[in-house]
Amino acid sequence: MSMVYINIFLAFIMSLMGLLMYRSHLMSSLLCLEGMMLSLFIMMTVAILNNHLTLASMAPIILLVFAACEAALGLSLLVMVSNTYGTDYVQNLNLLQC
Amino acid sequence: FTPLMLTAMFILLLPIIMSNTQLYKNSLYPHYVKTTISYAFIISMIPTMMFISSGQEAVISNWHWLSIQTLKLSLSFKMDYFSTIFIPVALFVTWSIMEFSMWYMHSDPYINRFFKYLLMFLITMMILVTANNLFQLFIGWEGVGIMSFLLIGWWYGRADANTAALQAILYNRIGDVGFIMAMAWFLTNSNAWDFQQIFITQHENLNIPLLGLLLAATGKSAQFGLHPWLPSAMEGPTPVSALLHSSTMVVAGVFLLIRFYPLMEQNKTMQTLTLCLGAITTLFTAICALTQNDIKKIVAFSTSSQLGLMIVTIGINQPYLAFLHICTHAFFKAMLFMCSGSIIHSLNDEQDIRKMGGLYKPMPFTTTSLIIGSLALTGMPFLTGFYSKDLIIETANTSYTNAWALLITLIATSLTAAYSTRIMFFVLLGQPRFNTLNLINENNTHLINSIKRLLIGSIFAGYLISYNIPPTTIPQMTMPYYLKLTALAVTIAGFILALELNLAAKNLKFMYPSSLFKFSNLLGYFPIVMHRLPSKMSLTMSQKSASMLLDMIWLENVFPKSISLFQMKMSTTVSNQKGLVKLYFLSFMITLALSLILLNSHE
C-alpha cells in the first residue's frame, strides 16, 4: 500500500475509534460517523482516479447520497432523544424497553 | 353364705328395674330406695358375721359368659376378706347418705332420677369390689366413672359443673390407660384375668403391670399427677361428694392396689414408687387445703390427703392397714361432708367459710358432729381414725423405708390438724358473718338420723372393726416411746399452731397474699399450668408439623420455589446489562481489535 492509502485508512480508523469511544454526547459519535463517511469518500475517489476506473465514477456520489440519508436518520434519532431527555447524554439511554 | 350375699346384691337392683313402672313416678321412691339399701345392709351383715367367725372365703362363679380363644370369662364374685368387710361398711354409709339426700335434695324436681343414679353408682361399686377377674373389675371401674360424671354434672346448667365432670372423666381416662395396659400384660403373659391364676403363677418381672395399676390408681384416687379433678368435683351436690368422693369411688384405686398385694409384696421398686407418690400427694394436698375458702374444697383436699396416706400404707407393704383406713375413713369423711352440707343448706347455699361464723349456738348437733369428725380425721386417740391412722404412722416409723417420705407424711399429718382447726375456727367460732335473715333449722329427722348414725359409727366403728376382724399382718408392738407418740405429737402441734395463728390474725388487716399463699391457694398452680400448656403445645405442634412442615415446606418450598429464587438471584448478580450504548460500542471495538490481532495470519 502506498502512503496515501495508509494515511486515509488511518483517518478512517481514527473516526471509527471516535465512533465507538465517546464520552457523553451522542452528537460526537454522529460527527465521527460523518468523519468515517468522509474518509471513505476520499479514499474511494483517489483510488478510482488513480487507477482510471471510470466505470465506477458514480460510486462516490452514491456513497455521498447514502451518507446524507444516514446522517439525517442519525440526526432525527438525536432529536428524538433530545426531545425526551432534554440533552443528548448517553447516560440517559438506559431503558431496555421501547 | 353365698345365697345371702347374692340376695343382698340383687335387692339393690330392684329399684332400678322398677324405674319404668308406676313406683318411679310417685314421691315415695326415695323412701323405697333408702329402705332397700337398709335391708341390703342388714342382709349383708349376716355373711360378714359368718366370715368373721369362720374365716371362710368364697368365690361365686355363676355364668360362663364367653371364651375368647383361650381366655374364659365368667361372671364371678369374690367374697374374701376385703369385699366381705367393705360391703357392709359401704352399704351403711350409703344408707345414711340416701337419708341425708332425702333432706338435701328435697326441693329438686328430679329427685327420683338422683336416687336412681346414686343406686346405680352403688351397684357398680359393688361390682368393682366383688370382682374376681379383671374384666368384671373393669366394668365396675368404668361404671363408677360414668356415674361420677353424671352425678358431678347434676346441675348441668352450670358451666363449672360441666367442666368439672369432663375433667373427672378425662383424668380417669388417663388412669384407665394404665389399667388396660396391665390387663393386656396379664393377658399376654399369663393368659388369664382371674386373680387366682395371676397370684399363683410366678412371674419374673412385674414392673409393667404394676406400673399400669399404679397409674390407674393415680387416676382414680387423685394422686399427685392426676389430682385436679377431685376438688373440681365439688361442683356436684353434697350427697354426691359424700358418697363418691369421700368413701367409695376414690378408694377404688386404692382398692385395686390392695387387691394386687401378693404381686406388690415382691417388687421393691413398686413399693418405693407408691410410697413416694403417696407422700407427695399427702403433703401437696394438705398444703393446698390450708388456704382454701370453700368448705367443700377443704374437705375434698383432706380426702386426697387421706388417700395419699392410704397409698403410703400400701407402699410400706401393709395392705390390710390401708383397707382398714379405707373403712374407717368412710365413716368420718361422709359425716364431714354431710355436716358441711347441712351448714350450706342452712345458710342458704353459702359455701365460703369467710362468710360463716358463730354456728356454735344455732346448730349444736352439726357442731358436735363436725368437731367429732375432725377429731376422728386427725386421729384423736380412741376415736375411729386412731385405730387406722395411728397404726399406719407407727408402722411407717418402725419400718425400713424411705425417711424422706416418712417425714413428709408426718408433716402432712400435722397439716391435717391445722386445716381441720381452720374449718372449725371459721365455721363455728367467733361472731356470725353471714346474712342475718337465714332461718337456721336443723330439725329435720332425716338429717339428724343420718348424721347420728354416722356419728356413732365414727366413734365406735374403729374399735368394733379392729377387734372383730380375722387376724392379718401383725402391727409392730414394741417401739421406742417417742416413735409411738409421734403421730399424737405432730397432731397436737398442728392443732395448737393453727389455733394460735387463727386467733392472732383474727382482727388484723388483710394483707396482700405472699407468694406462698398464692401457691397454696391456687392449688400449686398445677391445674392452671397443666390444663392449658400441654394441650396447646401438642395441638400447635401437630398443626405445625402436619400442615407447615409437610405441605408447605417440603412440597412447596424445597423444589419449586427455591429453584426459581435461586435463578433470579443468580441472574441479577451475573448479568450487568445496563442498557448503556457506550458499553456496546466499547465491546464491539474490543472484539474487532482482538480479532485483528489474533487472526493476523496473512502476514
Number of strands of chain A: 0
Report the order of strands and helices of chain A: HHH
Major sheet of chain B: size, sense and barrel closure?
2 strands, antiparallel
Task: Supply the helix-strand structural class of chain A.
Answer: mainly alpha
Calculate Rg of chain B over CA atoms: 33 Å
**What count of helical segments of chain B does DSSP give?**
25
The side-by-side strand order for the widest beta sheet of chain B comes to 1-2
Helix coverage percent of residues of chain A? over 70%
CATH class of chain A: Mainly Alpha
User: Helicity level of chain B, as a percent range?
Assistant: over 70%
- The first-to-last residue Cα distance of chain B is 134 Å
Low-confidence stretches of chain A: none
Written overview of the protein:
The complex is a heterodimer of chains A (98) and B (603). With 98 residues, chain A is mainly α. Helix content of chain A is 71%, strand content 0%. Chain B has one domain. Helix content of chain B is 72%, strand content 3%. Chain B has helices at 2-17, 22-25, 29-54, 81-104, 111-129, 134-152, 159-190, 195-200, 207-220, 229-232, 238-248, 251-259, 261-264, 268-289, 295-315, 319-346, 364-378, 384-398, 403-428, 445-468, 481-484, 486-504, 515-521, 526-574, 581-598; strands spanning 58-68, 71-79. In chain B, helix 15 (295-315) runs antiparallel to helix 19 (403-428), helix 17 runs parallel beside helix 18 (384-398) and helix 18 crosses helix 20 (445-468). The radius of gyration of chain B is 33 Å and the shape is elongated. Classes of the chains: A mainly alpha (98), B mainly alpha (603). The A-B interface holds A 16-17, 19-22, 29, 90-91, 93-96 and B 577-582, 585-586, 588-589.
